[in-house]
Amino acid sequence: MIESLLVANRGEIARRIIRTAKRLGVRAIAVHSEADAELPFVVEADEAVCIGPANPALSYRNTEAILAAAKSTGAQAIHPGYGFLSENADFARTVEASGLVWVGPGADAISAMGDKINARNLMAAAGVPVAPGTTEPAADLAAAVAAAAEIGYPVMVKAAAGGGGMGMGVAADEAALRTEYDKVRAFAERMFGDGSVLLERYFPRVRHVEVQILGLADGRVVALGERECSVQRRNQKLVEESPSPAVSPELRSRLLAAAIRAGEAVNYRNAGTVECLLDPTTGEFFFLEMNTRLQVEHPVTELVYGVDLVEEQLRVAAGLAPTFDPDALTPRGHAIELRINAEDPKRFLPGPGAIKTWVEPTGDGVRVDSGYVEGNTVTPFYDSLMAKLIVSADTRAEAIERAKSAVASFELAGPKNNLPFFAELLENQEFGSGDYDTGIVSRMR
């Protein structure tokens, strides 16, 4: 096993990785910005290094500062968490070239999946279903208009280098396409340094279902079930659950087989997620993207399969076998995750601030992965995620009831927060039925 691990991230996910590292006897090293000096992940690490000011470009995305911290602390490996540099192939290559262990997939796999057009083409060649769309970037507006006419409206306009729900727009006709194309291209150039744009068929009623994969040290790729991620605002997830209430055993078999083929197509190692769009009417699914990292929502898979995915990541990176039998993976029960964000529960606009009260719910089947404690301040410099409330039970109905109780007992004051939204959602008949899609939040508003 790796002996010392630098966590190149912050907040909730850094704290969560550190927890597993310390349980395994691995020396945990935190890096942090000046703004995060008082957060729990810094306090709980065995060692911590300040790597720069609040601006992520000067701290959490600062490759030189992170590598210098690794060298000064004698770190053996680097875990990037999610976001920041986690899907940066150049960073992965630099880490390995520096003689450190990279706790993630190989740089080539990151590169292959980082370009959405290249990823689509690779998946199609591997026999993974893809939605009708472009096989190369739309070079200009005229090319986009021609492609949309062939695909058929409505179309999704997407940044080829984007991810995490960013850099997307929907065009119902040519007039809208002209607006969305320019908007997405400008956003992509500003955010990703790459203005390439692709077009795909847009499905007005669709579910977002993803499969957790793990590329093992021996070369095999295994799938640890699916997660339902259709409760979203601005194309970004708010709630995830496993298993998906929309997936039958027959569909699950097809989904998992396709996800394994996707991983095998790029010789995938370590944890990753194959995201798909599911047409609830026909049962057809289409490849959306592959996230070459640990996902925010990984805890629901952990609770259903009884594994610690961070531990499995470390074992793969160290060349060790998994803790479980890949041929005997058995899911049990149901798990739901709610993302507790510092945001207005109606319009979902960020609302940072000092935390005056923070009392987490407890009890059987209740888990809270948090990045803050009472007295901390949620700053405007980073993502609004404060904590993840995860519940598990034998059935979905029982998990929903447990989630209602946990939300009601979560005491949080100071920053704006979306707990009232979750209280509303958990009473919503559409959500309760399990027959919902990505439009559920807009219908609630």
TrEMBL record:
Protein name per UniProt: biotin carboxylase
Domain ATP-grasp: 120-318
Organism: Micromonospora craterilacus
Keywords recorded for this protein, A-Z: ATP-binding, Biotin, Ligase, Nucleotide-binding
Record Pfam families: Biotin_carb_C, Biotin_carb_N, CPSase_L_D2
EC numbers for this chain: 6.3.4.14
Source organism phylogeny: Bacteria, Bacillati, Actinomycetota, Actinomycetes, Micromonosporales
Enzyme class: ligase
Keyword ATP-binding: yes
InterPro entries linked: ATP-grasp, BC-like_N, Biotin_carboxylase_complex, Biotin_carboxylation_dom, Biotin_COase_C, CPAse_ATP-bd, PreATP-grasp_dom_sf, Rudment_hybrid_motif
Transmembrane residue ranges: none
PROSITE patterns with a match to the protein in the record: ATP_GRASP (PS50975), BC (PS50979), CPSASE_1 (PS00866), CPSASE_2 (PS00867)
SMART domains, per database record: Biotin_carb_C
GO MF annotation list: ATP binding; biotin carboxylase activity; metal ion binding
Residues of the Biotin carboxylation domain: 1-445
